[in-house]
């Protein structure tokens, strides 16, 4: 059990840590003031500190607590003592982020060349885009600041150019893994740190080379599932950012191997949708890490597809674009994990496309790039709170 679990075990409700954290930093204090519901939640969950030893343990956790509360990743901070050590996460929490004026226009005015099959990830108000292909394979990237509307180029990556890879954010770090350059399939990866603006190399994964896999973050752990090399894969692995190590996931007959699908996370749940094996997948799946259980999602109100995108805003998983057996698509739908139901998205202001990227910042989804009959460098922003596309 983790130190935090040890602290929680056998303790009663109290205001002690709540009072400590409320005054910890101006950023945390502002979050508490601006979010009455969060304030109430914290008061109900914090515990009594009755010894210097326990207080020392709490103080050791303050930095990680600060990050988790900023993203309202409450399950990661306040997991019950008997809960799984793999706590949940919410990417794109619905917390309002101030966007620059004319942000859609500025987002579409990227210093990067038009491309497809790239990846994106976000930290606070910054969106990272990396890799992909146009007339050649690419290993460059850039960061877009939604608050200022400014782009900045990334430093050189230790990875070779590629497509079909994944990128997943855990706090201020982005884990990129897999992909291919022409017929050279990859099993390597790297970590980009938003705070230091530096790259580091991942240790070797216990998976074979592949593309078209999916990845999602739960707590400090990245889950990679499926994909293909010479055949469709039904295995996966977990990378633990804290220990900088990999663990192979045991195979499950409940997981339907697939490629060119997407994954997104809410709390301790991974939502897999779309993709194909020898034909388009007609259903999505939800994996509950705490209970180690797979369930089938209800049918979506959109057609089956591959090469689409997905991103999470709280309990809502936004799926958009892609292609089926006949057409490239410009429609989308939202799966609400808590309500276990789908919502249909309004028509998008951008053209149909495949192999674009999408990422959540606050309560908004940013979609960029991709291809239909030409490579794209434009984007669009969807507000999940208002169910509207920004103009």
Secondary structure topology:
Blueprint lengths: L2 H6 L7 H7 L3 H9 L1 H10 L6 H9 L1 H9 L3 H4 L11 E2 L12 H5 L11 E5 L2 E5 L10 E5 L4 E4 L12 E5 L2 E5 L2 E2 L2 E2 L3 E5 L4 E4 L12 E5 L2 E5 L10 E5 L4 E4 L13 E6 L1 E5 L11 E4 L4 E4 L12 E5 L2 E5 L11 E5 L4 E4 L12 E5 L2 E5 L10 E5 L4 E2 L2
Antiparallel strand pairs: 1-16, 2-3, 3-4, 4-5, 6-7, 7-10, 8-9, 10-11, 12-13, 13-14, 14-15, 16-17, 17-18, 18-19, 20-21, 21-22, 22-23, 24-25, 25-26, 26-27
Describe the overall structure.
With 391 residues, the chain is an alpha+beta fold. It folds into two domains: 3-79, no CATH class; 103-389, Neuraminidase, CATH 2.120.10. It is 15% helix and 30% strand. It has helices at residues 3-8, 16-22, 26-34, 36-45, 52-60, 62-70, 74-77, 103-107; strands at residues 89-90, 119-123, 126-130, 141-145, 150-153, 166-170, 173-177, 180-181, 184-185, 189-193, 198-201, 214-218, 221-225, 236-240, 245-248, 262-267, 269-273, 285-288, 293-296, 309-313, 316-320, 332-336, 341-344, 357-361, 364-368, 379-383, 388-389. Strands 1-16-17-18-19 form a five-stranded antiparallel sheet. A four-stranded antiparallel sheet has the order 2-3-4-5, with no helix packed on it. Mean pLDDT is 82; it is low at 1-30 and 39-91.
CATH class of the largest domain: Mainly Beta
What is the makeup of the main sheet?
5 strands, antiparallel
Label the overall shape: globular
CATH topology of the largest domain: Neuraminidase
Summarize the structure.
This protein is 15% helix and 30% strand. With 391 residues, the chain is α+β, with helices and mostly antiparallel strands.
């Amino acid at each position: 059990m983790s130190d935090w679990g040890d602290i929680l075990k056998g303790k009663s409700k109290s205001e002690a840590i709540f009072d400590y954290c409320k005054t910890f930093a101006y950023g945390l204090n502002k979050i508490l003031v601006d979010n009455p519901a969060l304030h109430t939640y914290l008061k109900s969950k914090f515990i009594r500190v009755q010894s210097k030893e326990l207080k020392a343990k709490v103080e050791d956790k303050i930095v990680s607590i600060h990050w988790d509360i900023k993203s309202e990743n409450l399950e990661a901070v306040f997991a019950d003592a008997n809960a799984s050590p793999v706590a949940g996460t919410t990417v794109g929490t619905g917390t309002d982020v101030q966007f620059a004026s004319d942000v859609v226009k500025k987002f579409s005015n990227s210093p990067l060349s038009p491309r497809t099959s790239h990846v994106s990830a976000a930290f606070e108000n910054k969106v990272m885009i990396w890799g992909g292909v146009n007339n050649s394979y690419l290993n460059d990237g850039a960061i877009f600041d939604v608050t200022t509307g400014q782009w900045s180029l990334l430093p050189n990556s230790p990875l070779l150019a590629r497509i079909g890879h994944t990128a997943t954010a855990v706090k201020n770090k982005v884990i990129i893994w897999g992909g291919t350059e022409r017929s050279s399939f990859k099993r390597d990866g790297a970590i980009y740190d938003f705070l230091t603006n530096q790259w580091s190399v991942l240790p070797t994964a216990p998976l074979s080379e592949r593309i078209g896999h999916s990845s999602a973050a739960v707590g400090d752990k990245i889950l990679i599932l499926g994909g293909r090399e010479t055949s469709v894969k039904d295995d996966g692995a977990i990378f633990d950012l804290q220990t900088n190590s990999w663990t192979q996931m045991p195979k499950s007959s409940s997981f339907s191997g697939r490629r060119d699908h997407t994954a997104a996370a809410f709390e301790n749940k991974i939502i897999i949708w779309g993709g194909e094996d020898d034909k388009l997948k007609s259903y999505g799946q939800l994996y509950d890490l705490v209970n180690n259980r797979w369930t089938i999602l209800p049918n979506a109100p959109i057609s089956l597809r591959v090469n689409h995108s997905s991103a999470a805003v709280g309990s809502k998983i936004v799926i958009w674009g892609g292609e089926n057996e006949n057409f490239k698509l410009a429609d989308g739908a939202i799966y609400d994990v808590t309500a276990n139901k789908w919502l249909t998205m309004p028509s998008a202001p951008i053209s149909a496309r495949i192999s674009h990227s999408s990422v959540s910042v606050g309560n908004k989804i940013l979609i960029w790039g991709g291809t239909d009959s030409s490579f794209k460098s434009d984007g669009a922003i969807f507000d999940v709170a208002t169910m509207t596309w920004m103009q």
